[in-house]
Amino acid sequence: MSEPDPPTDWDERFSSGSYPRDPEPSPVLCEYEPSIPDGRALDLATGTGRNAVFLAESGYDVDALDASREGLRITRERAEEREVDDRLETIHADATEYDFPTAEYDLITVSFYHTLDRFADLAAALVDGGYLFVEGHFRSVEATPSGPSTDRYRFAANELLRAGTALSVRYYDETTQERPNDRGRATARLLACRSHDPRGPYPERPGGKVRD
């Protein structure tokens, strides 16, 4: 019998409560989701199910992937509490090594996990017409104590946008927002579609924009 994997730093964070058990899903994802096709979704580096539980509640069949067993346990508990556990499967795996299936998902979401080196694999895992949503910490000129202590895991200006050019970009922004206790957060967000038709279909969102 193989030995179980040792606890990760994230296991300890999740079990100690130093990371939110019930984080809110991305506001941009929430606004766009109604106009994105239903089907199967993957929430990569799900943590405690930030986007995964929301997508299951929205009717998607969701694969929630993370390297933390504790995060996945909490994600399953949250899905059970909302009575959507029949639409959510957890996958214990390292996102840097996971062998993504080809043309499997209608929607893939990634929140605050730096994964530029897997972009080609994520794009290939989308069905034609499928969507990729990515948000992550951004290198802002303003003080942003929230997130990584160094720029190694922060997106440079337009770096996330350039990474998405193999897909059809539907939305992109770079913003800095104030948060409680003066912990500002600088974030880059991308929504892109695996589509050979540059004209659309475009999901609707009031005030949505694409930057050059």
UniProtKB/TrEMBL annotation:
GO terms for biological process: methylation. It comes from the Archaea. Keywords: Methyltransferase, S-adenosyl-L-methionine, Transferase. Residues 1-27, 193-212 are annotated as: Disordered. Residues 42-121 form the Methyltransferase domain. One of its GO terms (molecular function) is methyltransferase activity. This is SAM-dependent methyltransferase.
